Amino acid sequence: MSVAADPAETPAETPVGTAAETRRIPAAEQIADMPGAPPPEGFPGTAHPPPPESAPGTADASHPEPESAPEQAPGGTPGPVVPRPHDPAELRLTRPRGLTGLLWQDLAQVGLGPRRFRLGPARARLETAGQACMAGYNAVIAGEAERIDDLHEELRGFAYEGAGMACATLDVLTVTGGRRLRNLLSGQGMRYPHLIHLGTGWAYARLRMRPMWGIRSVHPLLRWLAFDGFGFHRGFFAADRTVGRQRTVGLLDRTRRAIFDQGVGRMLWFHECANVEDVILRIAEFPAGRRADLWSGVGLAAVYTGGAGVPELERLSAAAAEDGFRAHLVQGGAFACASRLISGIVPEHTVTAAPALCGVEVDEAGHWTDTALIALGHNAHSGDHYQTWRAGIRKTWARRNRDS
Q1: Which residues contact 241 (CB under 8 A, 6 or more apart)?
Q2: pLDDT per position as a tens digit, 149-158
Q3: What Cα–Cα distance (Å) separates residue 317 from each residue in 61, 355, 384, 391?
Q4: How far is residue 284 from each of residues 178, 242, 247, 325, 369, measured CA to CA in Å?
Q5: Across 44-53, 159-168, 243-252, 386-395, least confident range
Q6: Position 11 confidence tier, pLDDT thresholds 50, 70, 90
Q7: Cα–Cα distance between 299 and 262 in angstroms, integer?
């Protein structure tokens, strides 16, 4: 069963700046309630997990290696420098034969030009992030998941998002109940829990199924991020419907729609090629009741993925404040800070974006997410709990501003 993008939703490359709004898109699938699931034993939470024991010859993830680490020749003599590939295509993965090969994904499908998104200076950064996601997916399909860590450290989070998509896809198709996904979360991908859960939403969108169907034992709270990934995918591969006509997915309750819209907001950062003025104008086109969650997604993408400078981000923050949703922009940015901190890899663009959007450094913004999570107690699992978590982050930010 192939999960390649629907040909009806894959337009030819044109110089148009935004997605066209003339094609007919098949009706979206319906999403029903998502079953609860207890966390597997020993599964790391969203607070910073302890570093895993390093295998011989591997680096401690809490102390990421430099971009180019010299190999040691016999006798301690430094060997040739082996750079981490910045281009996901440099992984040179081998497409498997047989039925598994039908699941293979073309890295070019995430190009902004073929999707008819707006183009700009951030295009290369955003396309590379998308290609890293597809490369991580292909690495799992090819049985070479360990190759993900060969990517440049800044791209690995996106690759693990793709790995989560692949594991969820294989688990559903082979009816394993989530075995591969659990193994990824508790093993190689334990430092990327947010991104992996986002990737599961991609899988269900491709399979045209409701998120988390057939997969039980994943993180009881982060599993809700599947709806965020679902919204991102729907926006990215069905932009005319999701952005142009502002359609959602049928039978979503308020919680699921809010998380879906956070994913759409993340996608808008790609759709407008990180051009802040265009992002602001695009959000303004949506109904007021949806804009809070769109701002949250934009904040997450701006801090995690990057693509805009400090003056542009300050303009974004001012626009969110004028719209009455700066706290939601901050909450999304704090999520991004926490995700980067848990991975042990905080790139320079995140370091500079956090003060511009959140008003604090990365460590403090990430700590807000931990504080709000601890306040939920040990049994947080429902959609209401997830929304309370987000609200707690916003309250922490508001309290800090009030006291400062």
Answers
A1: 25, 28, 234, 247
A2: 999 999 999 9
A3: 32, 11, 27, 18
A4: 39, 15, 15, 12, 28
A5: 44-53
A6: very low
A7: 10
CA gap 357, 360 in Å, rounded: 8
Q: Which amino acid is at 404?
A: S
Longest CA–CA separation in the chain, Å: 66
The interaxial angle of helices 193-207 and 326-343, nearest 10 deg, is 110
3-state helix, strand, coil in the chain (%, to 5): 55, 5, 40
Say what the pLDDT of residue 249 is: 84
**Nearest C-alpha neighbor of 168 from the set 230, 110, 111:** 230
This prediction has a pTM of 0.80
Residue matched to tokens 């919680």: 255
Residue 389 makes CB contacts below 8 A (sequence gap 6+) with: 221, 369, 372, 373, 376, 380
Neighbours of 152 (CB within 10 A): 19
Q: Are 180 and 217 spatial neighbours (Cβ–Cβ below 8 Å)? A: no
Over 50: is that where the pLDDT of 284 sits?
yes
List 184's β-bridge partners, or say none.
Answer: none
The 10s digit of each residue's pLDDT in 70-129 is 434 444 444 454 567 788 988 889 899 888 889 999 999 999 999 999 999 999 999 999
Burial of 42 (0-12, 13-18, 19+ CB in 10 A): exposed
Return the CA Rg of the chain. Answer: 20
pLDDT in tens, 41-78: 333 334 444 434 333 333 333 334 434 344 344 444 44
Q: List the beta bridge partners of residue 68.
A: 83
Phi, psi of 79 (to 5 degrees): -95, -165
